[in-house]
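Quick question, first post here. What does this chain look like in 3D?
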Amino acid sequence: MPHFIVEYTDNIKEEAAIPKLLEKVNDVLISRSNLFPTGGIRSRAVELHDYRVADGEEDDAFVHATLKIGAGRSAEHKKETCDELFEVIKDHFADLYNRRYLALSMELIEFSEEGTYKYNNIHKRFKK
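> Answer (accepted):
Ran it through. Tokens below.
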């Protein structure tokens, strides 16, 4: 962990530059490798084809991000990380936000170790 999942409506696909957003998100998380092991970072995007926004009368769009992390970080560290990530998201979509109707949102989900299963040999590459 952490896992970053971004869902976005298909009506912004051509302008959203989602791979670049995922790169920016990973950069933030890697910069906090004291909190989040680099080998556990996963970022992914889901393009939504079936959705309805508000009253459905406009070509509204949305981007919703979820950051899933394991338990154990302080409230301050979680807030700092989420604040920075949401600023990255807002900055990434600023031009699009200024040109069309667009809703941006993000949530944090924290898991306990109980009920979480992991098998990962990627961590070995980042051990010093």
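The chain is about 30% helix and 25% strand.
The CA atoms of residues 42 and 48 lie 19 Å apart.
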